[in-house]
């Protein structure tokens, strides 16, 4: 196996936590491939920022809800790895892409359920399955969950249930990939002040202050609170951590 550069793949890397994770990885000397769905300009901005940090970066379009597109994506990824890095493998997969949802269980439609399932669980499952052969030995996977698998907020039931499935999948992946030295962990953010849940904050002007009042560290989280943790999970210093769910919520609803 010809390995020269450490490379991470971050899905949904054009905004929010994905963007901050990609930039944080680059600051640790890890090159980054990000995916975006339709925000190409924002993705290109992230690539430029990473390159300004002295790392290499590429953005590739991917709709994580469309499993039928994954073979085409893997082919593009393979080409990018060969052209840009002269290697066949990458080291770290960060399954970050997602959408928020605040629909009460009684009002969730089948279409809404299926969309959340496709993005947050089915897409994560099958994309990871497709990419495992391209992850280098002793690499890692970081899956994204939510603090709402521990505490409950009305309206987040379906979203959080999908994330609960991801947490279980993480443990099984850790067990099945351990022989190759691949570590698999989950990061579970609390409430984060990004456009991901921007509509909820706009509709409820006092929500951020309420969240801060219920958080041990006294404020709502920022993307910069999470990206560094994701990047650290991709370092040798965290090499003995696998199969774990790390909640990063500032102590929300303790």
UniProtKB/TrEMBL annotation:
Belongs to the short-chain dehydrogenases/reductases (SDR) family. It comes from the Bacteria. SUPFAM superfamilies: NAD(P)-binding Rossmann-fold domains. This is Short-chain dehydrogenase. GO terms for molecular function: oxidoreductase activity. It comes from Candidatus Desulfosporosinus infrequens. Pfam families: adh_short_C2 (PF13561). Keywords: NADP, Oxidoreductase.
